[in-house]
Write a structure and sequence with these properties.
The chain is of the alpha/beta class. The protein has a single domain, classed as Rossmann fold (3-Layer(aba) Sandwich), CATH 3.40.50. Helices cover 37% and strands 24% of the residues. The chain contains eight helices and eight strands; from the N terminus they run ααβαβαβαβαβααβββ. Strands 3-2-1-4-5-8-6-7 form an eight-stranded mixed β-sheet. Helix 2 packs parallel to helix 3 and helix 5 runs parallel beside helix 6. The protein is globular, with a radius of gyration of 16 Å. One of its GO terms (molecular function) is 3-demethylubiquinol 3-O-methyltransferase activity. Keywords: Methyltransferase, S-adenosyl-L-methionine, Transferase, Ubiquinone, Ubiquinone biosynthesis.
């Protein structure tokens, strides 16, 4: 097993939080349920731009492998990384049970970039940047890991009063959709900030789209509303 040589860009509290939830990654009615619900939207956003069949894909911050398995099922040769040991073990076990070939590594994006520079056609980093101390460092590492012309798909949470009300007060404290303490408002990221970091890393940021949630029907959909959850595509110059 490859292990990170350093884990500087990680919050120990965040790792402990997700380690405690590791055994519930594949419980669609549990605390990870919202990720299962939005996963088809995340995959459809990617497939709107390209076919994944035969591509080399990397899922950064894979958790229990929800998106990683979707990439593999779509035909991508998938590698997935996370620093939460318990989550990686759950991901490995579940993929094996499903008969899916996904290479799971317990390593940071920064360390993997030292080993596999310019090896991936597509990289996904979703619902992860708001959980690390230095999100731009992750984007820089992803840039190194992409082949020339490679595509980076990101998703995170906007930082504004509406996002605080819905993603923290509503989702964590009122509706109980996710465990309390999952998110910290100060770590939310405005689309302009995310696009700026991409440009500073030499990427061309592209389309941005929102994911909106209807609490009455408990359904998610892609929309033009990026005020809370949103997705972004960025391209490394060929």
């Amino acid at each position: 097993m490859n292990t990170a040589t350093h884990k500087t860009n990680a919050d120990p509290g965040e790792l402990q939080h997700f380690a405690a939830l590791a055994q519930q990654w594949w419980d669609t009615k549990g605390p990870m349920g919202p990720l299962h619900e939005i996963n088809p939207l995340r995959l459809s956003f990617i497939q709107r731009f390209e076919s994944l069949d035969g591509l080399k894909a990397l899922d950064v911050g894979c958790g229990g492998g929800i998106l990683s398995e979707a990439l593999a099922r779509a035909g991508a040769h998938t590698c997935a990384i996370d620093l939460a040991h318990e989550s990686v073990e759950v991901a490995r076990q579940h993929a094996a049970e499903q008969g899916l070939e996904v290479e799971y590594l317990e390593i940071s994006a920064e360390d993997l970039a030292e080993q596999r520079e310019a090896q991936f056609d597509v990289i996904t980093c979703m619902e992860m940047l708001e959980h690390v101390p230095d999100p731009q460092s992750v984007i820089a590492a992803c840039t190194r890991l992409l082949k020339p012309g490679g595509r980076l798909y990101l998703s995170t949470i906007n930082r504004n009063p509406k996002a605080f009300a819905l993603a923290i007060v509503g989702a964590e404290h009122v509706l109980g959709l996710i465990p309390k303490g999952t998110h910290e408002y100060a770590k939310f990221i405005k689309p302009s900030e995310l696009a700026g970091w991409c440009r500073q890393c030499g990427l061309h940021s592209g389309p941005t789209e929102g994911m909106t949630y209807n609490p009455l029907t408990r359904t998610h959909r892609l929309s033009r509303d990026v005020s809370v959850n949103y997705l972004m595509r960025a391209i490394k110059p060929a």
